[in-house]
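Late entry, evening session. Most of the bench is empty. Finally got around to the prediction I had been postponing all week. Sequence below, unchanged from the version circulated by S.P.
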Amino acid sequence: MALIEGSENNKSQEFILKTESLIKFNINNRSKSQGHFFIISGPSGVGKNTLLNYALEKVKGIYYLPSITTRPPRAGETQGNPYYFTGIQQFKKMIEDKLFLEWKMIHNGNYYGTHLPTINYALKNGYNIATDMDVLGFKDAKKRFSNNIVSIFVLPPSLEVLKNRLLIRDNNISLVNTRLERVALEIKHKQHYDFVIINDSLERAGEELILIMKEQLDSKDK
């Protein structure tokens, strides 16, 4: 599947390379104090994005920060939802220009990165943002934005449940086993997070995430 066709692709690439913020914020959501940076981490397949989508539909004033990736968009995906899509050369140019808070190349050769200018703009101007991030990316973010970050680690109810979720998403047994090998390493990092949620039920875990977000927003407004 092509990234984006013709001149639309060129405009999209230029926007990603030059923009101060990937997100169009509503000034009515602006706070007088610095913004919160909600970071959700957990093993692959644990349901981080599903939980985030559930919560952000019900909590006003928090904007989802899409990652930037070089992988092609899948059916139904568009620029900015759920990622910003770019080419490898553009991505490498952004690395050179220090436009990422953190970035990585995963096992299939695709790059993913978190847009630093958007984070700086949001937090400085009192906007709240949320994104999912792996444990190493969170470690980098914590060093830079320790006063703004609210961190949540998501656990599966069991490794067997996690394996079944991964197999539903991808029937490549070798790839699933590779992801499962990382789980123990990732879970060791949960002690460094502010909150831990067990995703045993979307509604229950989602409501727990909503409660955490609302309490943090309320404490900032006091």
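Two things to note before I forget:
The two ends are 49 Å apart (CA to CA).
The first helix runs from residue 6 to 18.
Will write this up properly tomorrow.
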